[in-house]
Amino acid sequence: MTELVEQQQSSSNPVADETGQYDPRFVLWRKFCADHDIPVSSLPGDLSAETKALWEKAKKGELGAK
Prior knowledge:
The chain has one domain. By secondary structure, it is mostly helical. It contains three helices and no strands. Helix content is 52%, strand content 0%.
């Protein structure tokens, strides 16, 4: 088994097969990228400190309310 597959299987926050690309985390990331002109293929770790702070705020606001 590859390391990536092992990481995905051991994740405590997996993406459900039922939601897939419509998982709220992915929807929020795509919206955030569109709002801030960031390529959706970027990772949160690629963000500048200022943009990363905005991302953390967006996550807490949207995902924390669920």
